[in-house]
Specification:
The protein has 576 residues and is α+β, with helices and mostly antiparallel strands. The chain has 2 domains: 9-463, 4-Layer Sandwich (Anthranilate synthase); 503-575, no CATH class. Helix content is 29%, strand content 28%. The chain has 12 helices and 29 strands. The strands form 5 sheets. An 11-stranded antiparallel beta sheet has the order 1-8-7-3-2-11-12-21-22-10-18. A hairpin with a 2-residue loop joins β26 (518-523) and β27 (526-527). The protein is globular.
Length: 576
């Protein structure tokens, strides 16, 4: 690859991978990594850096925009750009979902329980780029914000300083771990989330909206620690268990972000604009036949396709506000993409940005993304504000960069953890339509959270979205009275005390007599995650009777199945 020899200065470096590069810089202020951990088309580069020459927050956002435009104009008028690297210096940061309040008039109902900035932008004069195609890396030093000979001198000094950081080893701050499983409380219980789905559907039936993207948030309490160290450990774990093309790590002094986003919000190259909304999800399976079935079921789903097409219309409208008339077009519709835990339907929309407008104009015209709000967008946001109990902050906002040359790229901040000194917060959601099954929508959020759960387990220790057992009566031992502790039952996604658990007398499994019972979901008459249900039945039997010696095995005829349709997905009661 050929580079120009003028500013920015550049130097090749030896690093094992992008995470190794950012670890060498993690002790500096505001380290970042924009990580293409799942390389593919449009995800060739990972970008890293630290120690910005300026940082801006909510109170000086307008100043940040003005200074970027001034520096960008200077660079474009005099500096040649590298031939391929998409980012050699500029702004990196996040725009939280709640930044949308600056752009639209929205009610204030959900609690701002975190009290964090709605935007944080850092200006970098030294950045690195790692090419996943060639496994080579370079540092770029622009010397900004100085000018003329002072700029040249600063560029060389800063480059030398950063090169020295890659020659030695530096230990990372410790991350607190635990051995006992931690329960992660959510902003919703399973039942209240299902009722929230039904509330959205009431708005749909009333004609207020066609779709809204409802979400829930989980919180993992941690021992006091440095947010950046824990977020970097999570980013590392996410790259291993849930790699994504638009991953990110960004640390500030009091909070940090680790993201494994599969979704591009906006990309700007010259005047060419692209957005790639995701709508439509199925979980993956370790069983090849079941995995293939889930893939085919998603491709054949009219509901998921309708969700996606609605959001394509929203984004076409958003791009139409800032793109040349007639230039906005859909180049890919409902195309299936595979990720480690889920399948998604992805569409691609492109346009040409109007002359005189820039990346800030583009972002503000489209923010927040249609795929994580609804249709129509503003009314959906108003309804979500009245249903979701807390503000989302960075979740469903955008993380990315604006290069001095004018190019930009942002993800949609899903599959994203927000780390504070004493907690990790993360969320998941899904699009609710008239055809949605509340139970299926709830379980979809659990499927989407699996990658983050696995990353937390690698970084912190065992965790669970719902406790595997209820909080004990005397720590699962005998109660004070000497009576045996009350048994608990797992029903519909929650552990219930025995006296609160119930099974309908009309259920065929109950009528057939004694036994253990599971509830299965089926698509088009085929049971979903069949083998896992069999394995869980065995575990349940062993828990109830230590003498049980059952073993999971492939089984078809001996299991009696009765079904009662509830929606497009069918729930089945199974007894033996």
């Amino acid at each position: 690859m050929q580079f120009h020899s003028e500013l920015p200065l550049l130097q090749g470096i030896e690093v094992a991978d992008p995470l190794s590069a950012v670890r060498a810089l993690a002790h500096l202020p505001y380290p970042f990594l924009l990580h293409s951990a799942l390389p593919g088309e449009g995800a060739r580069w990972s970008l890293f850096g630290a120690d910005p020459f300026a940082v801006f927050g909510p109170d000086d956002y307008d100043a940040a925009r003005r200074i970027w435009r001034d520096l960008s104009a200077r660079v474009r008028s005099g500096d040649p750009a590298p031939s391929a690297v998409p980012f050699t210096g500029g702004v990196v940061g996040y725009w939280s979902y709640d930044f949308g309040r600056r752009l639209e008039r929205l009610p204030t109902i959900a609690r701002d329980d975190l009290g964090l900035p709605d935007v944080k932008l850092a200006f970098y004069d030294v950045v690195g780029a790692y090419d996943h195609l060639t496994q080579q890396a370079w540092l770029f030093s622009s010397g900004l914000p100085l000018e003329d000979s002072l700029r040249q001198r600063r560029a060389q000094q800063r480059l030398d300083h950063f090169l020295a950081l890659f020659t030695g080893r530096r230990s990372s701050p410790p991350v607190p771990r635990h051995d006992r499983p931690l329960a992660l409380p959510s902003t919703f219980t399973p039942d209240t989330y299902r009722r929230a789905v039904e509330t959205v559907q009431e708005h749909i039936r009333a004609g207020d909206i066609f779709q809204a993207n409802l979400s829930q948030r989980w919180t993992c309490t941690t021992e006091p620690s440095e947010p950046g160290a824990l977020a970097l450990a999570l980013a590392d774990a996410l790259a291993q268990v849930s790699p994504a093309p638009y991953g990110a790590f960004f640390a500030t002094p009091d909070h940090a972000i680790a993201s494994a986003s599969p979704e591009r919000f906006l990309r700007l190259r010259g005047h060419e604009v692209e957005t790639r909304p995701i709508k439509g999800t199925r979980p993956r399976s370790s069983d090849a036949r079941e995995d293939r079935f889930l893939r085919e079921a998603l491709l054949a789903s009219g509901k998921d396709r309708a969700e996606n097409v609605m959001i394509v219309d929203v984004l076409r409208n958003d791009l139409g506000r800032v793109c040349e008339p007639g230039s906005v077009h859909t180049v890919g519709l409902c195309e299936l993409e595979a990720f480690p835990q889920v399948y998604h339907l992805v569409s691609t929309i492109q346009g040409v940005l109007r002359e005189g407008l820039d990346a800030f104009d583009l972002l503000e015209a489209c923010f927040p993304g249609g795929s994580i709000t609804g249709a129509p967008k503003i009314r959906a946001m108003e309804i979500l504000e009245s249903i979701e109990p807390v503000r989302r902050h960075v979740y469903t906002g955008g993380i990315g960069y604006l290069d001095w040359t004018g190019d930009a790229d942002w993800n949609v901040a899903i599959r994203t953890a927000l780390v504070t000194p004493t907690a990790v917060h993360f969320a998941a959601g899904g699009g609710i339509t008239a055809d949605s099954d509340p139970d299926a929508e709830y379980r979809e959020t659990l499927d989407k959270a699996q990658g983050m759960i696995r990353a937390l387990e690698r970084g912190l220790g065992p965790v669970a979205l719902t406790p595997s057992r209820p909080e004990p009566l005397e720590s699962h031992g005998r109660a004070r009275s000497g009576a045996m502790p009350e048994r608990a039952v797992w029903i519909d996604g929650a552990m219930l005390r025995g006296r609160d658990a119930a099974l309908s007398v009309f259920d065929r499994g109950a009528r057939d007599g004694e036994g253990l019972f599971e509830t299965l979901r089926s698509y088009d008459g085929r049971p979903f995650r069949w083998q896992r249900h069999l394995e869980r039945l065995v575990v349940s039997a062993a828990e109830l009777d230590s003498r049980c010696r059952l073993r999971p095995r492939p089984c078809a005829r001996p299991w009696r199945m009765s079904s009662r349709p509830t929606s497009s997905a069918t729930r089945r009661s199974v007894s033996r």
